[in-house]
Amino acid sequence: MSVQDYLDKHQLSRKVEEAVNAAVRAKASDPALFIAGHMRRATSAVITRVRARQILDGHGMPAVEVELHTNKAVHRASAASAGAPEGAAAGAARDAERRKNLARAVADAVRVINDKVSEALVGMDPQQQTQIDQAIIDLDKSRHKVELGANAMLAVSIAACKAGAAEKEVPLYKHIADLVGKSASMLPVPAITVINGGKHAGNALPVQEIMILPVGAKSFEEAMQMGSETYHNLKYPLVSIEQPFDKDDWELSKKLTTLELCQVVGDDLLMSDPERIKRAVNEYTCNALVLKASIGSSICFLKNIHVFELLHINVIGYIFAVQANQIGTVTEAIEVVKQAKDAHWGVMVSHRSGDTEDSFIADLAVGASAGQIKAGAPCRGECLTKYNQLLRIEDELGSDSVYAGENWRTASTS
To answer: Which of 14, 60, 13 is nearest to 356 (CA)?
Structure first.
């Protein structure tokens, strides 16, 4: 094939001429760079390959990482495993067996992603999140995602979401906001872990995590400063409790919620299941939802008033905790967020114990206007990636950013 035949076949002469004309109109200072970008945008992105591998999460446990390839770039995402270690109290033999089982499950998920999932998604537009997630869901018809695994599905879905944002040339949180149907300017109040207990810590403390919420801050940056500086100087007025009873103890949860002493967050009670959420709304068995990237357990939230004068919190509104890996895809997470908003609940976005270093939930919290985010203590890499991403987002938004502050419980309903 001659050069001219090649140019004619791919219509390169016309495309180059259009790019040059665009550079002239824009008075581009670097014509070559402008033309390259123009021609890149003129070509629509399509998924060309999905590749998975096993990595280690924050506990050193096997987890799934996904690389989603398009004809323009590669986008990476990961999701922590569902099985968390039980601390010093757990037997070594039992931990070893759990690790082996988890490694087998991750290896199976990697094979399925590299095979079936990749084949199903090749050729799709990464901007079409709903269609991509439906294609993933169609590969696993089980109610609890036991065939592919919710974390494996979530990693693919998040990678696609990142690719969609890149194709639109917008930040990830703005792309998520478009999917949710809201503007993206609300920075969440961080629920910062100060004391660990329960099975994850291996001590006798009956509460898994004690946390502080710096609701009196004027910005997310100031909130992180408050949380860090008050780490060792605490008082304990209780404002929120997560999953206080067994996941099927609807009656006790209802009794606690109706007392209206504090926010009662549903985690395993709801399991991000639309039917359980509907029941909780109708029976008033909790007034909050956790939007989580994995499975967690009972949490108490405390308001710190020792060093800074954090404003008093009136117990208002309802909150819903969503765990993305209980659902499996970004689209399903967004749907339960909308369900929570329709019930006038708030939304808490949450990590899981031993999370990976993927910072997706930071963008999700802003994109969904959640008002609350739980990402652990400001001292571990997998936690700091989320907090640092939120600091970057606030800096990028500048004067347009709004810190949820005292509206932490109702931000997602506005």
So the answer is: 60
- The conformation of residue 290, written as its DSSP 8-state character, comes to E
Q: How far apart are CA 41 and CA 20, in angstroms?
A: 14
* Structure tokens that stand for 3 in this block: 């050069």
pLDDT digits (tens, 9 = 90+) for 44-62: 899 999 999 999 988 888 8
Under 8 Å between Cβ of 298 and 242: yes
Element (H, E) at 253: helix 250-259
**E-only strand ranges, 206-323:** 209-212, 238-242, 263-266, 288-292, 299-302, 318-323
Can you give the pTM of this predicted structure? 0.79
Q: Which candidate, 154, 141, 137, places its Cα nearest to that of 63?
A: 154
H or E segment to which residue 254 belongs: helix 250-259
Angle between helices 172-180 and 360-367 (to 10 degrees): 40
Query: Does 200 appear as a known binding residue?
Result: yes
On whether 209 is known to bind a ligand per the annotation, the reply is yes
CA distances 347 to 48, 86, 335, 352, Å, are 35, 27, 12, 16
* Nearest CA among 127, 254, 252 for reference residue 179: 127
pLDDT tens digits, one per residue of 118-146: 999 999 999 999 999 999 999 887 766 67
Query: Residue 57, annotated ligand binder?
Result: no
**Does 247 belong to an annotated binding site?**
no
Q: Judging by beta carbons within 10 Å of its beta carbon (0-12, 13-18, 19+), is residue 87 exposed, middle or buried? A: middle
Give the pLDDT of residue 300.
Answer: 43
Extract the tokens encoding 147: 């065939």
Beta-bridge partner residues of 279: none
Please give the Cα distance from 294 to 136 (Å, whole number).
18
Q: 353: annotated binding-site residue?
A: yes
Residue type, position 307, single letter: V
What percent of the chain has a predicted confidence (pLDDT) above 70? 82
Q: How many CB atoms lie within 10 A of CB 260?
A: 11
Token pair for 139: 């590969």
Q: Is 374 annotated as a binding residue?
A: yes
> Looking up tokens 């008093």, which residue turns up?
312
- Sign for the CA dihedral angle at 359, 360, 361, 362 comes to positive
DSSP 183-237: -S-EEPEEEEEEEE-HHHHTSS-SSSEEEE--TT-SSHHHHHHHHHHTTT-----
Straight-line distance from the first to the last Cα atom of the chain, in angstroms, rounded to the nearest whole number: 61
Q: 178: pLDDT confidence band, cut at 50, 70 and 90?
A: very high
